[in-house]
Amino acid sequence: MSGPREPALLRVEDLHVEAPGRPLVRGVGLDVAPGEAFGLVGESGSGKSLTARAVLRLLPRALRTRGRILFDGADVGAFTPAGLRRYRSGGVGMVFQDPRAHINPVRSVGDFLTEGLRTVGGASRRRAESEAVGLLEEVGVDAAPRRMRQWPHELSGGLLQRVMIASVLAARPRLILADEPTTALDATTQEEVMAILGDLRRERGAALLFITHDLDLAAAVCDRVGVMYAGRVVEELPARELERRPLHPYTAGLLRARPRIRGPRGRLEAVPGRPLPAYEAPDGCAFRDRCPRAAEVCAAAPPLRPLGAGRVACHFADEGAPGTDFGEDVGEDAGGGAPGEIGEEDRRG
Amino acid sequence: MAETGTGAPLLEASELRKVFRVRNRAARGREEAVAVDGVSFRLERGGALAVVGGSGSGKTTTARMVVGLEAPTSGTVRVEGEDWSHRRPTARERRRRGSVVQMVFQDPYSSLDRRQSVRGCLEEALALHGAGRSGRPAARRRADALLDRVGLAPAHGGLRPGALSGGQRQRVAIARALAADPRLLVLDEAVAALDVSIQAQVLNLLADIRADTGLALLFVTHDLAAARHLCDRVLVMDGGRVAEQGPTDDVLAAPRAACTRRLIESLPRPGWTPRRSIGRADPSAAPSTDPSAGGPGGGPHVPHPTGIPDPGRTAP
């Protein structure tokens, strides 16, 4: 958040989401610049998926929301039904965790892909079909013409997730919103899907809001990462900083709790307790019951304040605070020649 | 029973093979899908073996054959020297087997009865394995001891699964498995769905139980890092076959099989640039003529066996 930035493509301002008597999201604010990849990381109940759904105005009616969502400067909350349809069909594309739950099982892959092209884009059947085949090829689906005639249940999860991404591309969105898009996939397929998302994002200049529980993955593919806990953003940092020198004790705890394929074996340093949803969390700092550094001052909620290259909500955080340098984990085999590449993508330089 | 076959390994799988018959529209009829092909391994008493692989590698089918949920098409599973795979067990034998091998599944939501209290669930499992009728004070004490063993409070015993978090539910599933006092625990992606901070707790819990009681673990996972923390030995599967097996540290330090290297390289890490192994589909390339080829979706797509197979027709 330091230095001059382009005006945000997506801005979430002081977002609150509440079920009757139960706060779920408590004042989330974030900016995603055009073309930027922003990772929103959190455990169960942190409010990350609710935030994503609020961006799309897809929350159930029973939930009350406050705050503003601005897309390209326009207030999403004030969209007319027609404006909302345009926003969802062309402004933002969504990729969900379980493509099987979001792709109509009784219609062919071809029908699924051409529907939007024909109804929104007004293309003829033939043109829509050839465009859909092109999109499938772009996301690495082989034998695309045959896939068009297949049914969702005939495709593996990895393949179906590509179909989902192809359908998002068809709408040429400026923001891709991906909620745990690879969580149901194995590591190899995950790499494949993230590579496809990355390529397409760069080529088409789309921004990415990437929701995940996986800190490693978010840090590896995003420019900036926000960490959510109990309905709030507790830390926001450039991805590389977050991996090496997290500011918030919760982030540091998560990083230490991960099993690693190198380094010391044996007992993991688990974070005690369990992640709490906002309505169960204590007043003041929501993490204080689980925090090794908690003190009396934590009874007062720490504000999200600028620090270094990011922001943090912790009374104790100062630069390099939790005293954990995770940098040593960058193995010598960290991918041939890769280290420079992320820097080049960091368009905010 | 414990003394039969002293000297034999706790678990020995030889040349396990499982073929599912699946419907395939494109092939106009039924065809065979080989899920597991010639898998052999041993697990000593108190040992911990990880079975690692991507989707469709056959790791879950292998685990299901070990516990008897699937009958192998050919090959044998021996537990403490006794052949478990060539005869349909009687009800009494099934119960006896349950006191040797127990299984914990990925999703405790679907593996626990959501209308039964945690204590009721544990007391039922204890009663089944000869620990006295449920509801009696002795059974209640043992159920509370199990709760304590997995890090839950007696107060959790009165709750139903729906009132518990995912991590707590998985602890209940582990406690239920421990009620039988087994010698082998088969874990099928048992920590995959848990939050990072909880996953570490459950991995530590499993390591502690193993250290304290000598319980052997067969840990089926796609997560190499979790496998490394829990298991001394690892078996990597690919396309239904054993790609390599050996001490975990050796395999990770110097992987011999291409698929192991691929699994290691696909882990996100600082400086990682995800790669497309297949690249873009080349429209000029000849289309695949193999109807079963799943294409670039993580190897050949072996249809997931659950729900599809017809064990009666494929059992020997």
Automatic annotation (TrEMBL), chain A:
<dbReference type="GO" id="GO:0005524">
    <property type="term" value="F:ATP binding"/>
</dbReference>
<dbReference type="InterPro" id="IPR027417">
    <property type="entry name" value="P-loop_NTPase"/>
</dbReference>
<dbReference type="Pfam" id="PF00005">
    <property type="entry name" value="ABC_tran"/>
</dbReference>
<keyword id="KW-0547">Nucleotide-binding</keyword>
<dbReference type="InterPro" id="IPR013563">
    <property type="entry name" value="Oligopep_ABC_C"/>
</dbReference>
<dbReference type="InterPro" id="IPR050388">
    <property type="entry name" value="ABC_Ni/Peptide_Import"/>
</dbReference>
<protein>
    <submittedName>
        <fullName>ABC transporter ATP-binding protein</fullName>
    </submittedName>
</protein>
<feature type="domain" description="ABC transporter">
    <location>
        <begin position="10"/>
        <end position="255"/>
    </location>
</feature>
<feature type="region of interest" description="Disordered">
    <location>
        <begin position="318"/>
        <end position="349"/>
    </location>
</feature>
<keyword id="KW-0813">Transport</keyword>
<keyword id="KW-1003">Cell membrane</keyword>
<comment type="similarity">
    <text>Belongs to the ABC transporter superfamily.</text>
</comment>
<keyword id="KW-0067">ATP-binding</keyword>
<dbReference type="InterPro" id="IPR003593">
    <property type="entry name" value="AAA+_ATPase"/>
</dbReference>
<keyword id="KW-0472">Membrane</keyword>
<dbReference type="InterPro" id="IPR003439">
    <property type="entry name" value="ABC_transporter-like_ATP-bd"/>
</dbReference>
<dbReference type="Pfam" id="PF08352">
    <property type="entry name" value="oligo_HPY"/>
</dbReference>
Automatic annotation (TrEMBL), chain B:
<protein>
    <submittedName>
        <fullName>ABC transporter ATP-binding protein</fullName>
    </submittedName>
</protein>
<dbReference type="InterPro" id="IPR017871">
    <property type="entry name" value="ABC_transporter-like_CS"/>
</dbReference>
<dbReference type="Pfam" id="PF00005">
    <property type="entry name" value="ABC_tran"/>
</dbReference>
<dbReference type="InterPro" id="IPR027417">
    <property type="entry name" value="P-loop_NTPase"/>
</dbReference>
<comment type="similarity">
    <text>Belongs to the ABC transporter superfamily.</text>
</comment>
<keyword id="KW-0547">Nucleotide-binding</keyword>
<feature type="compositionally biased region" description="Low complexity">
    <location>
        <begin position="281"/>
        <end position="293"/>
    </location>
</feature>
<keyword id="KW-0813">Transport</keyword>
<dbReference type="InterPro" id="IPR050319">
    <property type="entry name" value="ABC_transp_ATP-bind"/>
</dbReference>
<keyword id="KW-0067">ATP-binding</keyword>
<dbReference type="GO" id="GO:0005524">
    <property type="term" value="F:ATP binding"/>
</dbReference>
<dbReference type="InterPro" id="IPR003439">
    <property type="entry name" value="ABC_transporter-like_ATP-bd"/>
</dbReference>
<feature type="domain" description="ABC transporter">
    <location>
        <begin position="20"/>
        <end position="264"/>
    </location>
</feature>
<feature type="region of interest" description="Disordered">
    <location>
        <begin position="265"/>
        <end position="316"/>
    </location>
</feature>
<dbReference type="InterPro" id="IPR003593">
    <property type="entry name" value="AAA+_ATPase"/>
</dbReference>
